[in-house]
Specification:
- The chain has six helices and eight strands; from the N terminus they run ααααββββββαββα.
- By secondary structure, the chain is α+β, with helices and mostly antiparallel strands.
- It has three domains: 106 residues, Helix Hairpins, CATH 1.10.287; 51 residues, Roll (SH3 type barrels), CATH 2.30.30; 87 residues, Alpha-Beta Plaits (2-Layer Sandwich), CATH 3.30.70.
- The strands form two sheets. Strands 4-3-2-1-5 form a five-stranded antiparallel β-sheet. Strands 6-8-7 form a three-stranded antiparallel β-sheet.
- A hairpin with a 4-residue loop joins strand 7 and strand 8.
- Helix 1 runs antiparallel to helix 2 and helix 5 crosses helix 6.
- The longest helix is centred in the first third of the chain and has 45 residues.
- The mean pLDDT is 84.
Amino acid sequence: MWDTISGWLLEHGVPILVILVASFIAFWVIKTALRRVVAQYVRVRGKGRHAKLWFENRTKTLSAIISSTLGVLLFVVALFMILSEVGVDIGPLLAGAGVLGIAVGFGAQSLIKDLLGGLFILLEDQFNKGDVVKIAGIAGLVEEVNLRRTVLRDLDGIVHVIPNGVISTASNYTRDWARVNLNISVGYSEDLDHVMAVINKVGKKLAEDDYYGKLIKSPPRALRVNNFGDSGIDIKILGDTHPMKQWEVTGELRKRLKKAFDDEGIEIPWPHVKVYYGEGPKV
């Protein structure tokens, strides 16, 4: 019996071991080399058109999707080679797989829709891993994206798994550059020219800051009088930042504007309510 087992191991076990080791080495080599190849491809395709963050996110996304797809293909090929080595006729299996694929195509249309949606997201570069996007009514950081689903984590730390087939609109908050878009209200009695000069001065100093200056592409400036509100006049402020930095810059700008307005005696209004009790005093 031992002779039979040893003979089988020599005849089939060694080839099977070789298949497994070769598949593992091939996957390791592909995974190791793929990131460099993808990074070079992304640099060539996006040179001069995108920000540094895009190159990093695009490389991570393409590397993950391509390596996982090739890993599945290698596994399937190795499995069929092993089955063939142990004497299983893989011809009927391949034919059955084709029939099964047709059945799945008819019975799992939502899965096909998800895969097609993921393919278009990838090819059209709608968003990548590491971007902040809003899809299916949910905004968050893209933690994972593949051909079937997209995984978002929102500001509360909640993870949302969204099938790609339900994504009809994708809003990317972090593609190449971002923007400070702020409305600030001042009292009706204020000199608007003076207020805008103060805003522009604060924005310029913020852009010259050792830390925040590295996050800003163009200093925040007062654009226009945006609205006559119930309690004050709204002034629109715009400025450009590097991707993912708009929220940090906007928060610091609010803090500095509050301090500057206090120093200049500029009123930041709040709703006022006058209450009358009965009739006014008689003269």
